[in-house]
Amino acid sequence: MARDDELVNIELRHEFENVLIEEYWLLDNSQFEDWLDLLANDVRYWAPVRENLTRGEEDFTRADLLTHFDEDKVTMGLRVARLGTGFAHAEEPPSRTRHFISNIRILDATDVNAVKVGSNFIVFRSRPGHEEHLFVGTRRDTWVRQTKAWRLQERLIIFDHDIIENITVFV
Amino acid sequence: MSDFSSLVDLERCTVSPRVFTDQDVYDAELTNIFTRTWNMVGHESQIPEPNDYLTTFIGADPVLLTRDANGKLRAFLNSCRHRGMRVCRRDHGNTKLFSCPYHGWSYDTSGKLRGVPQLDNAYHNDLDRDEWGLIEIPKVESFRGLVFANFDPDCESLIDYLGDMAWYLDIVLNRSKNGLIAFPGCHRWRLSGNWKLAAEQFSGDNYHAGALHRSMVEIGLGPKGDYRGNSPWIRDFEVKCGNGHGWINFDAEGAEPAASQAAFFEQIRREAQQTLSPAQADLILTVHVGTVFPNMSIISFLGFTSVRIWHPRGPKEMHVQSYGLVERDAPQDVRDITRKAMGLTFSPSGIFEQDDGVAWGDIATVQGGPIRSQYPFNYQMGHGHGKTMDDKPGLIHPPSTEIGVFGLYEKWHEMMS
After folding, report:
1. Taking CA atoms, what residue in B is nearest to A90?
2. What angle do CA B266, B272, B275 make, to 5 degrees?
3. Per the domain annotation, does A55 fall within a domain?
4. CA distances from residue B80 to B77, B88, B230, B262, B411 in whole angstroms, order as listed
């Protein structure tokens, strides 16, 4: 990598660290409508199921593989609207969540207006009673620059769970 | 063997909370129920070729479902005869030999013990390999692609076991000419709560939807109205099918399907005229929910079909394993719509299903105390009000009723006495 590219990479990494921290700040503070605004109108937010197979055989792009999420802006809007009704019992009283992000990596910045960013996450969820869960995994995002702000165009979420808890959180 | 019959009062239609909390009840269920019933273990389309396999569970026992080298469906305990480790720890695949990771005993897809390391110098060639094959589940039968297994060699046939339930399952599984196949992968998630709470809800509890799924009503996606539906007895009804099975049917006004899906639905409607009776064909593509006793449930609407097992994991915990089914002939865009609808609604993240898990978990958390355990749960709704009808089998009542739900406990009572 040329030295100029390295500098661009460092700057972008710093920029997206801020973007991703801001995003998780919104989620931890139940600002779901504001979080929804970060999603591009043509967003794909998806999370394939995991399988226990021989090393190298697991293929997230396998046709028709079941998904925990495969959402567009409309269905993400439904998920957010549900939380605002006061009757989404899985989140009422709401979970205490804390979103952590690390290992941020610029995967592809060939197009400076559509940057692919990788990151790892841990989400802690505490529910009424002594029910505490972790959601752990990695994400591969594509962020596009729109009217001077970054919008999430695609997020592939790879959960590191075989048998997962029910997923009432956004990651 | 203990007698748990007093925990279900057949006259008053009540069930003791102990049925959902006690370890001794749970332990007895594993033997009395899960070794004597037909349990779904997979779908034929998941293992189409010779030597294909998948792994699952029946009750507490690990199961290996194979298609042997001759193409015959067979089921075994997924456990080495030497020390008991699972001989296969993958979800699915194709192999000629399952080699136990621990000491290397290896078995073929017909369960025969093929390889034993150091058979000569360690066993002195004194081991009868015919005697030490995988433990085979004696009965394996299919219904419309769904594969079931039964540990009881003297059991009734699967079709007799399903009884009236087969007529209702056909409304989904036989509505199209070339039938349904399974999507790759499956949803697997952990829930607190007794497995029967999930099974009973799918067997005939429409009553919960207005309260538990109120958030969906509020955003305009839940069933509206008074739950008797627009056509009570006709398309809006619940069924006690006998043998512990139950079915819910209702004709929900939903979102308009996308053009491609609407066109595909028209194709299915035409095909159903050939594959089903007129009474069944009239019901296709409404909302269908059901439970095959003990712990397999089905939910089908918006074109998707989830078949799931509520695997018991102790009296207060279950693992859900849900497969998605779709028409073999569905074009790619219809498959995509179907898969996405299932994830959005009935899956670990499903905006209906999330709330169900919380109800079952809460019941598990707060039950078991000495005082609450003395007061039984009420299953009296609609008792004595079901009726038989000429056009469809079973005992029928429009929503809401608990005749189907209590039918599950009548069967449970019979098997636990």
Report:
1. B355
2. 155
3. yes
4. 8, 9, 55, 50, 34
- Asked, for residue A12, whether it belongs to a domain, the answer is yes
- Count structural domains, chain A: 1
Q: Judging by DSSP bridges, how do beta strands B61-67 and B14-15 pair with one another?
A: unpaired
Within 8 A by CB and 6+ apart from B87, the residues are B64, B78, B79, B80, B98, B99, B100, B105, B106, B107, B134
**pLDDT, tens digit (0-9, with 9 covering 90-100), for B147-195:** 999 999 999 999 999 999 999 999 999 999 999 999 999 999 999 999 9
Q: Residues B183, B339: contact at Cβ < 8 Å?
A: yes
Question: Mutating which of A74, A87, A125, A135 best tests the B interface, going by the most B Cβ atoms within 10 A?
Answer: A87
**Non-local CB neighbours of B175 within 8 Å, separated by 6+ positions:** B268, B271, B272, B275, B276, B281, B284, B285
- Within a domain: A164: no
Closest residue by Cα to residue B295 from B55, B63, B5, B37 = B37
CB B308 within 8 A of CB B186: no
Q: Is B357 on the interface with A (CB under 8 A)?
A: yes
Domain coverage including residue A93: 3-159
The domain that holds A115 is classified in CATH as 3.10.450.50
* Structural domains of chain B sorted by starting position, each given as residue range(s) with its CATH number in brackets: 39-143 (2.102.10.10), 162-416 (3.90.380.10)
This complex has an ipTM of 0.95
| Predicted confidence (pLDDT) per residue in A107-141, tens digit | 999 999 999 999 999 999 999 888 999 999 999 99
* Min Cα separation A133/chain B (Å): 11
Asked whether residue A166 is domain-assigned, the answer is no
d(C-alpha B287, C-alpha B248), whole Å: 8
Q: Which residues of A touch B (CB under 8 A)?
A: 47-49, 51-54, 57, 62-71, 75, 78-79, 81-83, 85-91, 129, 131, 162-168
Judged by CB atoms closer than 8 Å, whether chains meet at A81 and B219 is answered as: yes
Beta carbons of A163 and B189 less than 8 Å apart:
yes
